[in-house]
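1st attempt posting a full record on here, be nice pls
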Amino acid sequence: MKTMGGPTTGIVYDPAAKTHRTGLWHPESPERCDAVMGALAAPAIRERTVDVPSRAATESEILLCHTPGYIERARRDIASGAPMLSTGDTDICRESWTAALCAAGSVLSAVDAVIDGKVANAFCVVRPPGHHACPARGMGFCVFNNVAIGARYAQTSRGVGKVLIADWDVHHGNGTQEAFYEDGSVFFFSAHQSPLYPGTGASDETGSGAGRGTTMNCPFPAGADGEDIVGAFRDRLLPAASRFKPDLVMVSAGFDSRLGDPLGGFRLTDDDFAELTSIVLEIARDNARGRLVSVLEGGYALDGLGAAAAAHVERLAAPQPPPRSSRVRSEPRSQDLCGHDRREWRRGPLGSRTQGANGGPMRLFRDSLPGGNREMS
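the predicted structure (as tokens):
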């Protein structure tokens, strides 16, 4: 990759991401970094991308989206050598604190590079992922909410007014939603599988108070494909973004919505991710002077993760955006399925719906392994 110096796509990656070790057979593994960075090393991608230096976020920057009590609790859990955060289902090791700070800081580096015009847009290859991390609770493989911290940093330190966050991970970004649910300056859009962990993201969750109308959820059943998800981005997000007029676009780029991922039931292809990328680029061009920062979330089938991330970055770095597909669906399939069986879900300590103890993300992964329900280490 080249060094920064013009309007191209930046790649932010910190080697600390691989020091966050989650144990044998855990799907959120250091090898995910190898899969993505290996795919991005293809000559066709390298010649159109540049390295953006990473950094660790400061504690004051983490405080933009997380409570002091939770930060101290996470620090204590990690320093103690505990195998999991005491707030939820996030496996940790002693190096996880540095890795989590560098994950959030990588997003801040990307925000700076995009706003300063050093790159046109950026993709952050980070772990642990972030969109399940709530202000006062880590969960769902996440420690800090990387994209939420990036959005708030852009507003408080870089003079950005309104931020749009689009999330295409197969799981609902409950932490991001909670962070901005009463904030009209951040628009959160999610197309996700339901029912599925963490149990939030019903279509009637639209924000409250000053944030009423700036949360938009499009839940889909297992088996949804590009026709459904791309259609939701085109038919629901594009008009909403035109009304909201963001100054910066951010993406929670979860590739566990790809066909064959062990933790989801969507059927997106690499071409679908390229098309989703075209849509968010269009929103950024039309409203935010092209400024877009994308952040890696999920994606657990390593070959598929690399291929999908490559398709995403290839489209980000395309010299001229190709025309989007005009495929037409008979009728939208987005629907609120979260209420079909409320017995699967329980109210968590923060009032958000979270999946019961026997139905977390690791349960889904164990059941996908040969022999089923294999013990994790």
